[in-house]
Amino acid sequence: xxxxxxxxxxxxxxxxxxxxxxxxxxxxxxxxxxxxxxxxxxxxxxxxxxxxxxxxxxxxxxxxxxxxxxxxxxxxxxxxxxxxxxxxxxxxxxxxxxxxxxxxxxxxxxxxxxxxxxxxxxxxxxxxxxxxxxxxxxxxxxxxxxxxxxxxxxxxxxxxxxxxxxxxxxxxxxxxxxxxxxxxxxxxxxxxxx
Length: 194
What we know:
By secondary structure, the chain is α+β, with helices and mostly antiparallel strands. It has three domains: 60 residues, CATH 2.40.50.140; 56 residues, 5' to 3' exonuclease, C-terminal subdomain (DNA polymerase, domain 1); 47 residues. The chain is 45% helix and 20% strand. A five-stranded mixed beta barrel has the order 1-2-3-5-4. Helix 2 crosses helix 3, helix 6 packs across helix 7 and helix 6 crosses helix 8. The longest helix is centred in the middle third of the chain and has 17 residues. 30% of the residues are buried.
C-alpha cells in the first residue's frame, strides 16, 4: 500500500497529475481543488495517497492533507460511493465543514455532488453521523452551515465557480456572520462581482 509520495510534478491534466518520484512517473487522480492547489511542473510536493484496487484497475488518488485522505477513505467505505463520488463530495466544501454538515444531518452539501441524490446523501449521513460525533465533531444543528451554504449558492448564482466562491468565503473572518454580509465580503475579495 502506498501511503504517500514525494517528488516533482511532471504534468497536470483535468482529472489527474503525473508525479515523478525517483525517476518513476505515478498517475494520481485528484479532485479539482487539489489539482488547483498543487504547484506547477517541476515543483517538489508531498501527496497523501490511497491505492484503489479493482479487478480491472489499480489507481492512485492523491490529497494534499491527511484529513482529506481520511474522509475520502471513510466515504468510499460506504456501499454505493466510489472514488469519483468521494472526490466530488470533497470538492463541495472544506473537510471541517463537511464533517459538521454530516454530524448535524445537513444533506445540502452532499446533494450538490453530481450523482448523489437525496437518498444517497441521507445514507451517507446515517452511516457517518455517529463516527463524526465520536471524533469530536459537534452533532448540534449548526446555523452557520446554512448561512455558508446560502452564501456559496448566491456566489455561484452570480457566475462564480464553486471553487472560486469557496476560496473567497474561506478568506472571510468568522466574525462576519450572516449570508448577505459574507457574500458582500466575498465579492470584495473577488473584485466586486462580474
